[in-house]
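Dear Dr. H.,

I hope your travels went smoothly. While you were away I took the liberty of generating a structure for the chain from your last submission, since the lab meeting agenda had it listed for discussion. I wanted you to have the full record in hand beforehand rather than looking at slides cold. The sequence, exactly as received, is reproduced here:
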Amino acid sequence: MTQIFSVALGAALGVLGRYQITNSIKKKWLNMIYPWPTFLINFLGCLLLGLFYSLNLSENVYLFLSMGFTATFTTFSTFNLENIELLKSHQYRQFFKYLLATYLLGFFGVFLGFFIGNL
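The corresponding predicted structure, in token form, is as follows:
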């Protein structure tokens, strides 16, 4: 039960952090074309997840920070950590398949959703 609460609390803080950072950047850069908030949050999430993964944390702290905070802060960080794990285990073919499929299918999913939403 402690693990569930660790993840839930981390998730609540992660999504609130994303919300606050996104709104702060959008207020400062009103006319931006490039999606800087998402880009910066995804990079920061990747950086944090890599850091958390490399530290010798207790299980509950790791769950709070990784499955909780960074998972709701961004899912891009998890995707990149999984790619690192594939590379570390010398699964090069799976790495390239996962990388390409995720980006291509992700883009297609967004495109398809956008298309359906505009019917």
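Two observations you may find useful: Helices lie at 2-28, 36-54, 59-73, 76-88, 92-117. The two ends are 45 Å apart (CA to CA).

With kind regards,
E. W.
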